[in-house]
Amino acid sequence: MTFSPVAFLKHLKPFLALGFLLSCATVQAEDGYRLWLRYDKVDDPVLLTSYRQNVSAILVEGTSETEKVLQEELKKALGGLLDREVSLAKTPGENGTIVVGTPSTSPLIASLDWSKELEALGPEGYLICSSSLQGHQTIVIASASPIGALYGSFHFLRLIQTHQSLENIHITDQPRVKLRLLDHWDNLDGTIERGYAGKSLWKWNELPGHVDPRLKDYARANASIGINGAVLNNVNSNPLFLTKEYLLKIAAIASVFRPHGIKVYLSANFAAPKKIDKLPTSDPLDPKVIQWWKDKADEIYRIIPDFGGFLVKANSENQSGPQDYGRTHAQGANLLAGALAPHGGIVMWRSFVYNQDVDPDRINRAYKEFVPLDGKFDKNVLVQSKNGALDFQPREPFAPLFGAMKKTPLLAELQITQEYLGHSTHLVYLGPMWEEFFKSDTFSKGPGSTVAKVVEGGIFPYSLTGISGVANTGSDRNWCGHPFAQANWYAFGRFAWNPESSAKDLAGEWTRQTWGNDPRTVSTVVSMMMTSREAFVNYTCPLGLNGVFEKDLHYAPDPGMVDPRREDWSAAYYVRADEKGLGFDRTRKGSKNVDQYYPPLNDRFNNIATCPEELLLWFHHVPWDYKMKSGLNFWLELYHHYGIGFEKVINMRDQWNELRGKVDDERYQQVDQKLKLQVHDAKEWKTLCLKYFQTFSHMPFPTE
Ligand code: GCW
User: Fold this and answer.
1) Given ligand 1 and candidates 419, 549, 574, which is best to mutate, with the most ligand atoms within 8 Å of its CB?
2) 378: burial class by Cβ within 10 Å (0-12, 13-18, 19+)?
3) Is 317 among the catalytic positions?
4) How far is it, in rounded angstroms, from Cα 418 to Cα 436?
């Protein structure tokens, strides 16, 4: 039989077609799953050539789990970005070798004699430096510990992803805050309190036997932005999480997170001794209760040796706490702290308390309860305060506890999930809100005592420092529901690493990694992001208004809402609309909240003429005809702000429409559909709120 190539190919045709189809199927859809770690080929030919010259091989001498992870990440990422195989080398035998590790795991890095500098950068800090090694031009990513080398590797990848030069680089960085945590409000049944992106990522019924491979991608994403801990369960916590059955499941999660530098933490239910083991009491001073927590901590550390510690919501919103037994928050926190201390664990005790008996103004209560306890907490306790004194409103002044706790480390809690900021439907980049918070001057040790400095331990020498964010992740394919909500996860991690970051720079970084480096795309996306938060404030609650949300869901407006369960869950309580004006009088003639702030802030807030206009209704009951700085009366100014907010959303959609064809259609359409809804909602907010307020102001709308 003679061989006929034509006949051979004919037979092969169906297989070739199948192969082609299969290879198409493996082309990744732009479904948002890859987040900011997309690693597509660098699309600038000049840069690509230069990167290929600078990067040819990866050399990792250490063999720890973390070093395996970073090697795998670099190989995958560089292979994608440079669109060619990047080999693993054993010696820097050619120019362009990327040498990664620590002086103790890598003789090559040890030979550079950088130990002192690396020690000074701390275990999570790193150095990225162009260096000559054994006669070859290399780039060294070094740290005192493998975790720092992992962070350095992600930084290095970010340089390429954002199209920066790799020539003669010398970069050092280290986190300014020790604990950088995501708080998951995930329940045992898989639902997420205030979650808008699907179900919980933790599949309790499959654990510990099967761990969803997705958890590794979750850990990679977190490590890439420096997050080093995750509280796995809701602060409204089910005590079952502390039982052996669940601890084993949590241990399985911890083992996936560990190589990425992420510790697991749990929200602890204060009544657990009673609820799990039927002790007659959970009184923190009862010897049996003390022993119970000690035994529990011992058990936890036997199962999860590097367990991080507990987060506790006590005596708040029906959660039990030490006050049930006539004890203080400090006594409650110290009970758990004492049990965890021998193992190196910590307690994060929330200050989100608002007992009505303490003060008629809800926002005065936490300060009044916690400041007298300053200095009474054990060394391994941090008090965890939300950024504002109320509850994650679109704009609040910083909570006055920042700067008031001098001996107790204060951990800042931010909310990444958009409970009061349009859920996963509205495009709202939270970076500017967090920058505003961190930049606020508390004046606690004179001018310059910013919240960032307080949280970093730079004003009062805190031995522990931390920032946590209520997570916006879930089982949705794109993790966060809205493609732009990923930016809030990203920015949170970067702010937790450095609270003095610039929201605009972070928006740029994220955009380049997520939507590409095309200059027009970058400038349009960044401009949309940077206007989005102020737009939201304007079309929902301008000029310091707050609490205007519908009951429970907190999505739509309902400024007149009265909640029969509690006065301070009612919109009307915050809005205080009447014939005279609008807003909550917190001056010295009102609830006196202004005096929880240091001078000169107290006087500045107290005086309607000097109070910043964006906080006016937070601190003052403003007469409808009050003359604003613009010359308009307050009623018209309010009207004007709602209008600006609405217009901005229309502009955002127009801007987005200019990007049709410049970004992938899948995500383009998704964002566009959401923007369409946002335009609709913004109009509803504006119309409904203004109509409601008009029933009090009795003033006409201007003719347009
Ligand atoms: O704002 C409220 C939320 C609750 C949340 C609570 C808290 C977890 O509406 O859903 O409960 O804050 O922070 O504890």
Assistant:
1) 419
2) middle
3) yes
4) 17
**Residue 25: how many CA atoms within 13 Å on its side-chain side?**
6
Task: Check if the beta carbon of residue 501 is closer than 8 Å to that of residue 433.
Answer: no
Domain 179-514 architecture: Alpha-Beta Barrel (3.20)
Q: Is the separation of the CB atoms in 697 and 624 below 8 Å?
A: yes
Span 523-544, average pLDDT? 98
Given 94, 119, 245, 317, which residue is catalytic? 317
- Using CA atoms, how far residue 624 sits from 287, 396, 558, 620, in Å, is 59, 22, 20, 12
DSSP letter for 268, please.
P
Rounded to 5 degrees, φ, ψ at 267 are -80, 125
- State the pairing for strand pair 381-386/229-231: unpaired
- The answer to whether 306 and 258 are in contact (CB under 8 A) is yes
Better-predicted residue by pLDDT, 8 or 704: 704
For residue 109, the CA-to-ligand 1 centroid distance in Å is: 48
Report residues whose beta carbon is within 6 angstroms of any ligand 1 atom: 185, 193-194, 234-236, 313, 317, 352, 391
**Residue corresponding to tokens 């491979």:** 213
Instruction: For ligand 1, pick from 317, 319, 351, 574 the residue to mutate: most ligand atoms within 8 Å of CB.
Output: 317
Q: Given ligand 1 and candidates 183, 234, 236, 390, which is best to mutate, with the most ligand atoms within 8 Å of its CB? A: 236
Neighbours of 665 (CB within 10 A): 11
Domain ranges for the chain, please list them: 45-173, 179-514
Tokens of 292: 């119970």
Nearest CA-CA partner of 330 in 420, 405, 274, 387 = 405
List, for residues 55-73, the tens digit of each pLDDT value. 999 999 999 999 999 999 9
Region 521-548 average pLDDT: 98
CATH architecture of 45-173: 2-Layer Sandwich (3.30)
Do 465 and 409 form a contact (C-beta atoms < 8 A)?
yes
- Residue 391 is a catalytic residue: yes
Residue 176 is classified by DSSP as S
DSSP E strand stretches across 428-532: 466-470
How many CA atoms, within 13 angstroms, populate the side-chain half-sphere of residue 546?
26
* Tokens read off for 215: 């958890």
The two three-digit tokens of residue 7, written as one number? 């006949």
The alpha helices in 400-484, defined as continuous H runs, are 431-439, 451-455
Q: Is 419 a catalytic residue?
A: yes
d(CA 140, CA 133): 9
Question: Given this model, what pLDDT does residue 27 score?
Answer: 42
Q: Whose CA is nearest to atom 1 of ligand 1?
A: 391
pLDDT over 60 (residue 13): no
Amino acid 94: pLDDT? 87
Report whether 171 contacts 128 (CB < 8 A).
Answer: yes
DSSP state of 663: B
